[in-house]
Amino acid sequence: MRQLLRELIVDNFAGGGGASTGIELAIGRSVDVAINHDPAAIAMHEMNHPDTKHYCESVWDVDPREATSGQPVALCWLSPDCKHFSKAKGSVPVSKKIRGLAWVALRWAATVRPRVIMLENVEEFQTWGPLRKDGYPDKKQKGRTFRSFVNALRYCGYDVEWRELTACDYGAPTSRTRLFLIARSDGKPIVWPRQSHGDPIGLPVQAKRLKPWRPAAEVIDWSIPCPSIFERTKPLAPNTMRRIARGLKKFIINNTNPFIAPVKIEEINDNSQLVAAFLAQYHSETANHDARGQTLDRPLLTLDTSNRYALVTSHLVKLKGSNIGQPATAPMQTITAGGTHFGEVRAFLISYYGASVGSELADPLHTITTVDRFGLVMVHGTPYQIVDIGMRMLEPHELYAAQGFPKEYIIDRYPNGAPVPKKVQVGRCGNSVSPPPATALVRGNLPEMCTVERPYKAEYQYEMQFQ
After folding, report:
1. Which of 172, 228, 273, 191 is nearest to 390 (CA)?
2. Residue bearing the bigger pLDDT, 24 or 337
3. Cβ(45)–Cβ(17) under 8 Å?
4. pLDDT of residue 359
5. Spatial contact of 281 and 309, defined as CB atoms under 8 Å apart
6. Does domain 2-210+420-459 have CATH number 3.20.20.70?
């Protein structure tokens, strides 16, 4: 009789639905049970997975036997809170209670015995061990609790393996790397999916064995204006200006092949103006004060619960003839197209590059050389002059697209019509599981359940917005 009942899929720590979405894309239907203690997260999950049975409770308060009503369980997915393992937590004490949430897997294994258990967490989950009396991890016992956890699953009759997977290798435009653990009790082999995407300059992609990684540029909404940093009502903070300046130097001025945004300049038809762009990490910098950010032709770096990414655009005007700059002592050159900020850009570059290039601004000769070079950008051998700089934070729908969610995933409203605050949208994205790796794992280990295609699957792959 047990074999006649439909096997269930259960998503513990379901959050806003990242893992559930990945599973649904694989099996063609919603997960059967979703559990999360946060009412707002469950509300977002309900909005996008209305056929799922939802429990807005602690995972420890849900009886697996009651939740499954005697039906067999094919997959139990777990994504326990990762903050108290992640290096992003910083140098503060961690919570033993939160770090112990993963033990609920043993409860499911002992009561309803899922055929497959999958767990997702940060890579540091492998270092799970006892805490000292002061609340900090005991480095001498690093990994001891993780090994005990694995051994407990094996004692329950499960084969257990784990690996680190990177989302961009499976079709998400983000380089987010996470640890995945698979345990199965049905005697079938654990399957690790082959990556489908790779480095565009790598041999597997060149030989067309893999697709190229999806770039961050693919998920940028280029229709959203990027306001000039020189026309803000409230000036940007000095640290932000420095990050923009360092990013301009690294990703555009000193880049032999700067990324040119697919933005049309309606008022100019002779291709004399281009928009170069990069992503800046808004609230952080490296120890040596180098630019922290990235070009847009690579997958987006890992997302967290705060919006750290700013799109920076640099407006370039083609220089005519031998006009490649001027010393600071010479009269201001005439700028005929889009050059209203030329003087401001010059002052900006001098101010924020001066001390970082090895000399003080008081050095006249070096300052003059710096002005000439920092105003010049070469694009495919053609000189351009920077005439304006824009900046805006990435919007939630761009971040969800980078995480690998389908376009139509609803993130801005709850089932009752109430709006979801932007900060909450961003936080839930950072906490989510990237759907593509989940899809690949389920297809590899539960192929017998992946026989029906989800209606929106055809729309899942984002089309490039530029050629």
Report:
1. 228
2. 24
3. yes
4. 39
5. yes
6. no
What is the torsional sign of CA 134, 136, 140, 146? positive
Q: Where are the alpha helices (DSSP H) in 354-434?
A: 364-374, 396-403, 422-431
pLDDT at residue 370 greater than cutoff 50: no
Amino acid at 309: Y
355: left (phi over 0), alpha (psi -120 to 50) or beta: alpha
Sheet of strand 73-78: strand arrangement: 53-55, 33-35, 8-12, 73-78, 116-121, 177-184, 159-166
Residue 295 scores a pLDDT above 50: yes
Q: Cβ distance 54 to 46 under 8 Å?
A: yes
Sequence-separated (6 or more) residues with CB below 8 Å from residue 147? none
Q: What is the pLDDT of residues 413-429, one digit of tens each?
A: 999 999 999 999 999 99
Hey, what are 173's tokens?
């435009």
Question: Counting Cβ atoms within 10 Å, is residue 380 exposed (0-12), middle (13-18) or buried (19+)?
Answer: exposed
User: How many angstroms separate the Cα of 149 from the Cα of each of 100, 128, 153, 184, 393?
Assistant: 10, 9, 6, 14, 41
pTM of the model: 0.86
CB-CB contact of 426 with 305 (8 Å):
yes
Beta bridge partners of 147: none
For 79, the token pair is 């994504």
Cβ atoms < 10 Å from Cβ of 147? 12
Top pLDDT among 135 and 388 is at 388
Taking the C-alpha atoms of residue 370 and residue 375, their distance in angstroms, rounded to an integer, is 8
- Dihedral sign of CA atoms 387, 392, 397, 402 in order: positive
For the chain, the domains span: 2-210+420-459, 238-393
Beta-sheet pairing, 116-121 with 73-78: parallel
CB burial of residue 65 (10 Å; 0-12, 13-18, 19+):
exposed
Q: Distances from the Cα of 311 to the Cαs of 224, 225, 300, 323, in angstroms? A: 11, 10, 12, 29
Q: For the stretch 401-416, what's the b/e string if a residue is b when 16 or more beta carbons lie within 10 angstroms of its beta carbon? A: bbbbbbeebebeebee
Q: What's the one-letter identity of residue 253?
A: I
Residue 82's Cβ-count burial label (10 Å; 0-12, 13-18, 19+) is: buried
The three-state DSSP-derived secondary structure of 176-204 is CEEEEEEEECCCCCCCCCCCCEECCCCHH
Q: Which residues of 227-254 are buried (b: 16+ CB within 10 A; e: fewer)?
A: ebbbeeeeeeeeebbbbbbbbbbbbbbe
Count other Cβ atoms within 10 Å, centred on residue 223.
7
Average pLDDT in the 170-180 region? Answer: 95
